[in-house]
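TICKET: design request
STATUS: open
ATTACHED STRUCTURE:
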């Protein structure tokens, strides 16, 4: 009886502990993406973003998992139901800053209820 009680108590305690966060090993593309934070190095591009999405199975991923792969967004926009992360790609820069009146290319990733639901590429 004591053995069963001990067994049940240990199952309860191990079942209630928080799962350990898995350490993510970043791919070369992910490291390159984050290093080229504004797209000024001309390394960050639309194709690389698609590869990162597919290789890391990011469809329906949380914002936290997404940011471990893509890094900090250049812009974050929120409304009641959606959050969007904007990342600049292939920017025209001067002294590590995007030139004010230059064309800009970017990718907008849209999250609803903390899950990635869509992304769009644009240049303007």
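STATUS: resolved
RESOLUTION: sequence designed for all positions
ATTACHED SEQUENCE:
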């Amino acid at each position: 009886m004591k053995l069963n009680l001990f067994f049940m108590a240990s199952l309860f305690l191990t079942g209630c502990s928080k799962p350990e966060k898995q350490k993510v090993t970043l791919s070369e593309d992910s490291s390159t993406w984050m290093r080229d934070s504004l797209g000024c190095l001309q390394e960050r591009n639309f194709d690389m973003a698609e590869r990162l999405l597919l290789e890391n199975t990011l469809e329906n991923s949380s914002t936290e998992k997404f940011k471990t792969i893509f890094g900090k967004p250049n812009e974050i926009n929120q409304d009641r139901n959606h959050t969007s992360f904007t990342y600049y790609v292939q920017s025209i820069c001067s002294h590590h800053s995007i030139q004010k009146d230059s064309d800009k290319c970017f990718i907008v990733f849209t999250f609803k209820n903390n899950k990635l639901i869509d992304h769009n590429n644009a240049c303007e």
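CLOSING REMARK: The beta strands are 75-78, 82-89, 93-94, 97-98, 105-112, 115-123. DSSP finds four helices and six strands in the chain.
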